[in-house]
Amino acid sequence: MEERPCGLCGDADAWVYRTGPVLEGGYGSSAYDTTRLILTDEARLKGADRLCDACVAGLERDGVTYAYVTVLGDAPTQAMPAAAYAAIFAHHAGITLDTLQKHGVKRNRPQPEVTLDQIEALRADLEHDPSRTRSFRVGQVNFATETVRVARAHVLAAIALCAPLDDETIEDAARRYGESVAGSVVLMDSMIDDLIDKNLTEDR
Ligand SMILES: [Zn+2]
């Protein structure tokens, strides 16, 4: 059988593959099959393009990678730092831009005066945007999947408005999105804590 050594430790079979900031578990992985994870510190991989389960688990423990999409098994955690949400956003916005280019979508000359606020306003009308709302139905929001949709809507909105759109503007939008959503997740957690506290107090 073909040997597939891990790019980090070198001594285990590696079934988790890396594409840019995303790790994706393949069929041979017992812990990560069908799971996608986002890296917040790509330098940690030292150029490795495939990893074993143990090394991925180590990255999770160190807080530099977070599962954000999975087809089988438990839902990914919601409590990711701003940098993880920003990285998911930027990665999927980049994919959307590539897809549009592949289909020959022509872009008009960018209008530098179009602001990020304007793009965000249109984006929020196209897709539910957790970075622009302060009310959540507990248990019904999956921030990670929504982030993928919002990143897509961001690119469409920016193109429709003829806004400047490149790696730098995507990074800026991603950072602002990440900070806002990470704040919302904390807010939601504290809302749940408050509810539990209130119920406990009333039960007494
Ligand atoms: Zn390894």
Structure description:
By secondary structure, the chain is an alpha+beta fold. It folds into 2 domains: 57 residues, no CATH class; 122 residues, no CATH class. The chain has 5 helices and 5 strands; from the N terminus they run E-E-E-E-H-E-H-H-H-H. It has a 5-stranded antiparallel sheet with strand order 4-1-2-3-5, sandwiched between helices. Helix 2 crosses helix 5. The longest helix has 37 residues. The mean pLDDT is 87. The site of zinc ion has 8 residues, from helix 1.
Order of helices and strands: EEEEHEHHHH
Strand numbers in spatial order across the main sheet: 4-1-2-3-5
Tally of contiguous helical segments: 5
Radius of gyration: 19 Å
* Count of folded domains: 2
Low-confidence stretches: none
The structure class reads alpha+beta
Mean model confidence by pLDDT: 87
- The strand count comes to 5
Main beta sheet strand tally, sense and closure? 5 strands, antiparallel
Give the amount of beta strand, in percent. Answer: 5-15%
**Which cofactor or ligand species appear?**
zinc ion
Task: Please sum up the structure shown.
This protein is an alpha+beta fold.
Key words describing this protein structure:
single chain, 204 residues, alpha+beta, 5-stranded antiparallel sheet, 5 helices, 47% helix, flat, binds zinc ion
Question: Secondary structure elements and their pairing?
Answer:
Elements: E1 16-19, E2 22-25, E3 35-39, E4 50-51, H1 53-61, E5 65-70, H2 82-102, H3 116-126, H4 143-160, H5 167-203
Antiparallel strand pairs: 1-2, 1-4, 2-3, 3-5
Bound molecules: zinc ion.
Zinc ion binds at residues 6, 8-9, 12, 51-52, 54-55.
